[in-house]
């Protein structure tokens, strides 16, 4: 077969209908659990002023330094790239909180988002340049119970999509901004005279973002780090107490976790609680999601000092886990009825029949080409239709239609006027796809 001329750009992929069944299922779980807990949906633009990410996430993080997709604006002269595709939701949501005066709403403001993010990562398994996150943010109040409840919500979602058993929750507290500054100083001091033993990449990190050394994958760095100062030696009493209460609440909620003093996460805005759901088998490399507290971010972006905590999960990685775990995403893509016909009169009658079946909530496909009845039946089989309605010239004359149960291989002739009623009886009223009408559009299927 000839090679296709065009392919998806490197690091991107098509979400094919089979994948959507999983994505839709995850989205449903997210929406359902978020609504239960009072979260409301927000959508921010896919691109924003690049400074929001540079300031918010941190200029010397991998996400900003290496992975931002910069976007130019044609309205301007020259090629000054002032926007960036969002690599995550948090910074944009905080921008929106400030811009829309959400501090006037009852606090905390609980928001959730689902959508695409972009990172110019080196593509590899589970690491894409365009991927989906679902994101949860609680802004405006600081309390360890909020952190614990957020994690509980995430656990419920993982349990709904049946991947909990495959994940381990790691938690840590990285203290206040001041604790961090002191720790960074100590870390820099510790490395004086040892720089030469560090691999190039970590020597650079030592200059730009020394905290990142803690989760370095470089063997030489890991060996040196064994005698480095530990973060918890620099935590102030308040942070220690905060963390102890947080762990207490996790226990109260019967959430299993593992304390991980090395967990720092790759974004600069974090303070206090950080957490990550890691793959039991491969560990940190392909975390399914992570989050933490960011009490300085809103102020950094120009708002009043406002605490916040949040989480984001990578949906492609969740789909991968669901498939690995053999989870079949329940979906409603089945074909209930296939309508086969022969001759111009039959075709005309079928057009109406198909429309009516669909309006009643029966998933209906119709072969309206000119193929023989036999090949139409083969098609019905390929679509795995549960029933076929067959209308040939004879049936048109006698005002009947043949109803065939595809699995049983049995068929009977019935009155044309009774076809819809009969099909609905077989499928069951409760299985009709009419929810938008039943619920008066209260619950629409969002993206
Ligand atoms: P993050 O750890 O950078 O955190 O990303 C969250 C999750 O997004 C990751 O655990 C992973 O599952 C998924 N992810 C990240 N990059 C990729 C990629 N290139 N390909 C596929 N999946 C990926 C954040 O984004 C923070 N905004 C989380 C947060 C919300 N913190 C507070 N509020």
Plain-language structure description:
Helices cover 37% and strands 19% of the residues. The model has no long low-confidence stretch (mean pLDDT 92). An 8-stranded mixed beta sheet has the order 1-5-6-11-10-9-7-8, with helices on both faces. The chain has a 5-stranded mixed beta sheet with strand order 13-12-14-15-16, sandwiched between helices. With 447 residues, the protein is of the alpha+beta class. The longest helix has 20 residues, at 17-36. It has helices spanning 17-36, 50-57, 62-65, 90-99, 144-160, 177-191, 200-208, 219-225, 237-252, 297-300, 315-324, 344-360, 373-382, 393-398, 419-427, 435-438, and strands spanning 40-41, 47-49, 70-71, 83-85, 109-118, 130-139, 167-173, 258-259, 271-279, 289-293, 308-314, 337-341, 364-366, 387-391, 400-405, 410-415. Helix 1 packs antiparallel against helix 5 (144-160), helix 1 (17-36) packs across helix 11 and helix 5 runs parallel beside helix 9. Strand 12 (337-341), helix 12 (344-360) and strand 13 form a beta-alpha-beta unit. It is built from 16 helices and 16 strands. The chain binds histidyl-adenosine monophosphate (HAM).
